[in-house]
Amino acid sequence: MNITQVIEGLISKTITKAEEEILQDTRYIPTTLKKLSTLASSLGDPEYSQAIYDLSEKIKRDSVLSDEFIASIRDLGLFFEGQNFATFDEHRLYDTIEKLFGVTPNEPIIIKRETLQFLKDKINIDISLPNNDIILDNIFAAPIYYLKLKQEAESKLSSRDFGNYKAE
To answer: Once rounded to an integer, what is the mean pLDDT over residues 13-32?
Structure first.
């Protein structure tokens, strides 16, 4: 993985956590949106940060908008627009995400003994099972999440220095 994929994964974990917060208790939508506004600011996108903050203020005053927002999250999930990761402070980003959402890059993964037993029975092989669950510590795992990266077309150059072009 490169650093951008790690950051995308970390942000996707954060957005998943924010989605859970919103759906568990809708009274905290403005609070969660303000935390996402801070995240956008940490990524160096003040305009997007302000747009999220403004949305949080509108949702506080408009119950219909709040209901529509919740319905859209239930139907489509929560979306977050990440800026080009060329100009940001990764340590500030990690600190912000951990402080606001309690999300860290690495975490333990637990493999239940029952899962291993099921796999053993399904594959039908003779292996010894551990007495307890297996805990793999310090693993980076993140949900697959789409991030729309804001990139200017002017900064993208593509060319070929040899070969014929074939029109189809």
So the answer is: 91
